[in-house]
Amino acid sequence: MSSHDIPEENLPAEQDTAHGAVTVADEENPFADPGLPPHEHRVQDIDEQAARRSERTVAMLFTVSMLATLGFIASYVTIPTDKSIFVFPIGHLSAMNFALGLTLGVALFAIGAGAVHWARTLMSDMEIADERHPVEASPEVKTKVLADFKQGARESQLGRRKLIRNTMFGALALFPLSGVMLLRDLGPLPGTKLRHTLWSKGKLLVNMNTNEPLRPSDVAVGSLTFAKPEGLEENNEDFQTEIAKAALMIVRLQPDNIKDKRELEWSHQGIVAFSKICTHVGCPISLYEQQTHHVLCPCHQSTFDLSDGARVIFGPAGHALPQLRIGVNADGYLEALGDFEEPVGPAFWERG
Q1: Which of 189, 206, 222, 291 registers the highest number of CB atoms within 10 A of its CB?
Q2: How far is CA 220 from CA 39, 202, 210, 252, 303, in A?
Q3: CA distances for 164 relative to 42, 54, 59, 168, 343, angstroms
Q4: Which domains can be identified in the chain, with CATH numbers?
Q5: Claim: this prediction has a pTM higher than 0.85
Q6: Which residue, 268, 284, 266, is CA-closest to 228?
Q7: 267-325: per-residue pLDDT in tens?
């Protein structure tokens, strides 16, 4: 249906857009204003059924945006981070990243497409020419701007097209939830991970250098040995994360030289096992002085006395190194009798 087929009285009223335009050139105005071409009315301007179809289309796009936003949240919560899918011709992709990108793109596109379709089919498309004016706004201009704003609000039909208004508000209200969900990547929440390590009852103490289980005879008096839990290998994906909590210092002292009662009870024939991770900022401790039984952190010189519960005797470290209770199994190998009683490193000092 064309606007030429509609009786003149059914067409929307034309607006005066001349605003003093000069149509004939003269000495004062050498350039004539050609004016605007005749306005062609859209089918939505003259057919309410067509306008309602456009309204439903815009509402559908906003609804698609809402569904895509919910799909984004569902994908983020339910898809495992290590799951991958094959997408031709790109290849293998992370299933979560693909789903998040797809749903977020659809949500944004549907809002944009709905707004564009709304503007092109239902909002006023009347061309208006306006004269240039000084930069400063005169009272008349302010009055005109306010009047134009009110007219635009009326022509947008926001109050009349309640279906568009409600679905648009729904899409705009739901979409920010995508950003809220992304805040979860500041985590993930550690839960109780910082409270525990790979050490547990029965785990063998494995020499970091030889990758062999340790026997008491392998640890000489005055020596310093580094150990890791049985089963933790350097080619493991989480090796660095786990060794940063589970690394051990093994030192053998004369039992008579151990001053702390609990340290003596948790040792085996003078062999004591302490966390290698400094309680200041988490540096690995590696400097041992066998005459004084002191270990020194090379980063900030925190010094711990291994003969007295690894308490801090110098430096900025806030508390003693956690001790691992050890024993010997039936095969004669050193084993852990549980996990550390305190969280290792500088993260926090007490279990909550």
Answers
A1: 206
A2: 98, 23, 16, 6, 22
A3: 19, 10, 5, 6, 56
A4: 3-186 (no CATH), 193-336 (2.102.10.10)
A5: no
A6: 284
A7: 999 999 999 999 888 899 988 998 899 999 999 999 999 999 999 999 998 889 999 99
